[in-house]
Amino acid sequence: MAGTPPRRGLHASSPDVRQWTGIAAVAVAVLLLAEFLVRQIMIGPRPELSEKAELVDFMIRTAPWTLTMVMIDAALMAWVIVFLACFRQLITESRHDIDWIAGLAFGAGLVFVGVTLVGDALEAGTALDTIGAPPDPSALRALTEGHTLMFGAIGCILIALVSAASGYMTLASGVLPKWTGRLAYTVAVLNVLAIPTAFGGTNDRALFSAGGVGVALFATFPWLAWVVAVGIVTIRGRRHAAVVQHRGTLEPDRDLDGL
């Protein structure tokens, strides 16, 4: 009897979720590095919002790089969505009973992406306000104050929820090393601790402020580092499984040769 033909078309096998988890993690790492370099090297620290003349000059000078950074961040968020979908699938394949927790993490992650994209749009608005007409300092200040909280405390609340749910699912399912689950819990705690920065003002040079470096270093960056770590672990696990399967197919042949 002939073997079953491979599935094609609409009935073809789905893409390897572990492979795409790794691809998404690598894309997140590359885009995060690119965004960091643009922000630190090409844009630099922003003047105080009360310094109207300096703020206008800064926005005019950095407008092209601000738009570039926003486009990079939008692409980064798209790959975060891919990662969240892959991570949810990894969990639900192993533990169907915690699918509702996986849905909670996925939904909170999508809201975080949406909030970030709105913040990106507001930040891009500061650049667009300098093109074709004299910029309005009041508009620049309002747009900056709006996206500052979205990138700061609001985002921290959502990341804390995603991280806590991810940590629980990782430890409950066992599909990833336990240290990745503990790392997710640590990221959740760090983001909770960063929430009070909402009351720290808008000076992005200050550590404890709504738009300061503290949120990026101790909240957002650790979560993205966890995303990259999970992606690396899953792609390495996929390769290990492939090697084991390959060896398993070779062992019977060696036994037959010895008979």
Structural commentary:
By secondary structure, the protein is mainly alpha-helical. It has one domain (15-251). Helices cover 77% and strands 0% of the residues. The chain is built from six helices and no strands. It is elongated. The protein starts with 16 loop residues before the first helix and ends with a helix.
Q: Please tally the helical runs, counting DSSP H or I stretches of 4 or more residues.
A: 6
Helix content: over 70%
Quick one: biggest sheet? Answer: none
N-to-C CA distance: 28 Å
Mean pLDDT figure: 86
* Poorly predicted parts: 239-259
Question: For this entry, what is the oligomeric state of its chains?
Answer: single chain
* Helix-strand makeup class: mainly alpha
Radius of gyration: 23 Å
Search tags:
single chain, 259 residues, mainly alpha, elongated
Summed up:
With 259 residues, the protein is mostly helical.
Blueprint of the fold:
Elements: H1 17-43, H2 52-94, H3 99-128, H4 137-173, H5 178-194, H6 213-258
